[in-house]
């Protein structure tokens, strides 16, 4: 009897363990099913789960929080200098691919564009750092090029079209709007395997206009910075040093000009620094050419005005001095063009 009772107790114990394990396994399956519902993509979820997710505010909140975390991660990532890969700005392509993947261009309402505009604005607050400005000029202009190739205004038949942002009126705005032209094809951006045509809604079109404004602003800051550096030097380039005589200029020619025209050398050094900054940051050639074209126009105008205002500088020796300096500048242009 004692043995029978012991066997009965053991059977009851094993039965309890089995039932307890079965209960735990059932609970585990339940938990896994609920976890799968929380993290399942809406596109692939069954209709019943879709209805459940749409009716549960907690799931909606979780989805919104996840999207916010994604945007925060993107902002934190591109806020750093990500550099370049094969001459292409990494930040610009990262932003474009994320916006494309999230379908932000097709969204009626999103905060990601405002966050990006705020990021660019804060990144260029230091207007004295030409290297940082050139980095953001490269990224913003490349991103704008991608948007121009990708976005098309939504206006399908039977739909009510939303209002469009105002058209740019400035010269640079019109130039940036025509990024599809052949001149901008010289950009170091091979977008054929990246760009995808999408119907953009108003937030995306507005973002493109704001981005155009920032490209124009950064471009103008870099150009004006170099103008400030050259301004004080140009006024000194129209008068030969007192130790330099016209006879020496005529005899020694270019060699004398190279040793004596220190102010012209400083101008060339500034141009060299700017050219290297633009090249290192892979600024699109069309923008670099525009910057130098406007800088040379500025030098031309300032030299002419300085000669008109200072008649005492209109002498043969000063003329030879200016001529020697312009010859050095012409040699630099030939070298820079080949590069």
From TrEMBL:
Entry keyword annotation includes Transmembrane helix: yes
Keywords: Membrane, Transmembrane, Transmembrane helix
Membrane-spanning parts: 12-33
Family annotation (Pfam families): DIL
Residues in Dilute domain copies: 114-339
PROSITE patterns per the UniProt record, alphabetical: DILUTE
Protein name, per record: Dilute domain-containing protein
Organism: Aegilops tauschii subsp. strangulata
Phylogenetic classification of the source organism: Eukaryota, Viridiplantae, Streptophyta, Embryophyta, Tracheophyta
């Amino acid at each position: 009897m004692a043995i029978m009772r012991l066997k009965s107790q053991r059977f009851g114990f094993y039965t309890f363990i089995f039932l307890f394990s079965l209960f735990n396994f059932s609970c585990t399956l339940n938990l896994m099913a609920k976890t799968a519902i929380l993290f399942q993509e809406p596109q692939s979820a069954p209709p019943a789960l879709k209805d459940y997710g749409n009716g549960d505010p907690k799931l909606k909140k979780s989805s919104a929080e996840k999207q916010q975390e994604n945007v925060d991660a993107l902002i934190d990532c591109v806020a750093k200098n990500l550099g370049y890969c094969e001459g292409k700005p990494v930040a610009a392509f990262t932003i474009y691919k994320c916006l494309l993947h999230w379908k932000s261009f097709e969204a009626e309402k999103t905060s990601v564009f405002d966050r990006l505009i705020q990021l660019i604005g804060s990144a260029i607050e230091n207007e004295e750092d030409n290297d940082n400005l050139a980095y953001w000029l490269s990224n913003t202009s490349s991103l704008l090029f991608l948007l121009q190739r990708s976005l098309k205004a939504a206006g399908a038949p039977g739909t009510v079209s939303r209002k469009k942002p105002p058209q740019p009126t400035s010269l640079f705005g019109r130039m940036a709007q025509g990024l599809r032209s052949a001149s901008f094809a010289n950009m170091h951006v091979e977008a054929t395997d990246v760009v995808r045509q999408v119907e953009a809604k108003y937030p995306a079109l507005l973002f493109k206009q704001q981005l155009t404004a920032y490209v124009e602003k950064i471009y103008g800051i870099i150009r004006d910075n170099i103008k400030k550096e050259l301004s004080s030097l140009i006024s000194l380039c129209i008068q030969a040093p007192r130790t330099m005589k016209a006879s020496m200029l005529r005899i020694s020619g270019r060699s004398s000009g190279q040793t004596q025209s220190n102010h012209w050398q400083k101008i060339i050094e500034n141009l060299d620094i700017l050219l290297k900054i633009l090249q290192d940051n892979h600024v699109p050639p069309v923008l670099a050419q525009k910057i130098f074209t406007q800088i040379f126009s500025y030098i031309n105008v300032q030299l002419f005005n300085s000669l008109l205002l200072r008649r005492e500088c209109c002498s043969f020796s000063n003329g030879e001095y200016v001529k020697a300096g312009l010859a050095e500048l012409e040699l630099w242009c030939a070298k820079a063009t080949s590069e």
